[in-house]
């Protein structure tokens, strides 16, 4: 008998602990589905991993995903694992995302060594966050709070917080749960206080459009509910934003077969806040997309010139 050569397929990922955890999760799922293939991780650095300052100042989209997409296109990797929150709403024509994994906790976590909740923060507290959305949402509730940058991967940020660099920070509950750091969460912030980023808590797998075999295999991993939810949220974002410089939040939650959608846009200082909410029975990706997109367009015209969108 001829020994069977195991085909190798490469799963591309960033090197942060959270990215690696998510890529290993995908690797396990693929090994279960297709043990004949040798599923290897390939770690790549993205521009988002090397930037020091404010992400918004770098303008470009896809800071955490572009290098992975280039590696897909030139064949260095066969799959790319992304946090969907980091994936631009307009994709490359030669790439597709056929699998979205079941959604984790969508909330943001408030983390502080000394203070029990957002409302317990002392007057003028210093909050470390590079996220425009979290800053604006917190400022809307607590205009007295001051901000500083706190960047780096989840562990780095938690360490800086313990060193006293700031009084509190925010991270996605999903990321902390995946890293086994749920005990660091001081308060899981209710979504009516802090509506999450579009697609927060969802991991997606991107591949080359032409890779039909991979598409067929991944179709079985796709979570339809996660797909419809984030399709609506990302369509809302797409209708509103071109630059990642406007604080935008969206969440589409299931109640039976009804998708309950909420979206909001804030001014950077949190002084202006425009929101919408609606519920509809949704069955297809097309319906989910239209649902989110229309709400983005309506909100955009409600806002008029009061918040600038530099598309
Ligand atoms: N690069 C930032 C990023 N992208 C996705 C997550 C969290 C995990 C998720 O939303 O799926 C994080 C970190 C954070 O916001 O705390």
From TrEMBL:
Binds 1 dipyrromethane group covalently. This is Porphobilinogen deaminase. Pathway: Porphyrin-containing compound metabolism; protoporphyrin-IX biosynthesis; coproporphyrinogen-III from 5-aminolevulinate: step 2/4. The modification S-(dipyrrolylmethanemethyl)cysteine is found at residue 244. Keywords: Porphyrin biosynthesis, Transferase. Its cofactor is dipyrromethane. Belongs to the HMBS family. Its EC number is 2.5.1.61. Pfam families: Porphobil_deam (PF01379), Porphobil_deamC (PF03900). The porphobilinogen subunits are added to the dipyrromethane group. It is an enzyme of class 2 (transferase). It comes from Algimonas porphyrae. Residues 11-215 form the Porphobilinogen deaminase N-terminal domain. Residues 229-271 form the Porphobilinogen deaminase C-terminal domain. It catalyses: 4 porphobilinogen + H2O = hydroxymethylbilane + 4 NH4(+). Tetrapolymerization of the monopyrrole PBG into the hydroxymethylbilane pre-uroporphyrinogen in several discrete steps. Monomer. InterPro entries: HemC, Porphobilin_deaminase_cofac_BS, Porphobilin_deaminase_N, Porphobilinogen_deaminase_C, Porphobilinogen_deaminase_C_sf.
């Amino acid at each position: 008998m001829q020994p069977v050569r195991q085909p190798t397929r490469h799963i591309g990922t960033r090197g942060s602990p959270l990215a690696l955890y998510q890529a290993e999760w995908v690797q396990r799922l693929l090994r279960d589905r297709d043990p004949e293939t040798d599923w290897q991780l390939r770690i790549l650095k993205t521009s988002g991993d090397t930037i020091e300052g404010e992400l918004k100042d770098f303008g470009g989209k896809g800071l955490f995903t572009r290098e992975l997409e280039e590696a897909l296109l030139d064949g260095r990797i066969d799959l790319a694992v992304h946090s969907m929150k980091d994936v631009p709403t307009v994709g490359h024509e030669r790439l597709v995302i056929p699998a979205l994994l079941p959604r984790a906790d969508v909330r943001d976590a408030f983390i502080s060594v000394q203070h029990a909740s957002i409302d317990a923060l002392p007057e003028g507290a210093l909050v470390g966050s590079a996220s425009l959305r979290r800053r604006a949402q917190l400022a809307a509730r607590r205009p007295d709070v001051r901000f500083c940058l706190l960047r780096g991967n989840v562990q780095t940020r938690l360490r800086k917080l313990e060193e006293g660099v700031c009084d509190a920070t925010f991270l996605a509950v999903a990321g902390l749960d995946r890293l086994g750091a749920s005990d660091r969460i001081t308060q899981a912030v209710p979504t009516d206080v802090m509506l999450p980023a579009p697609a927060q808590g969802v991991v997606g797998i991107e591949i080359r459009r032409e890779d039909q075999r991979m598409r067929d295999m991944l179709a079985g991993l796709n979570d339809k509910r996660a797909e419809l939810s984030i399709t609506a949220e990302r369509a809302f974002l797409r209708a509103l934003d071109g630059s990642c410089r406007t604080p935008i939040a969206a969440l589409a939650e299931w109640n039976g077969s009804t998708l309950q959608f909420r979206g909001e846009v804030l001014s950077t200082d949190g002084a202006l806040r425009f929101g919408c909410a609606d519920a509809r029975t949704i069955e297809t990706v097309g319906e989910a997309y239209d649902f989110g997109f229309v709400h983005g367009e309506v909100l955009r015209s409600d806002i008029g010139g009061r918040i600038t969108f530099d598309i």
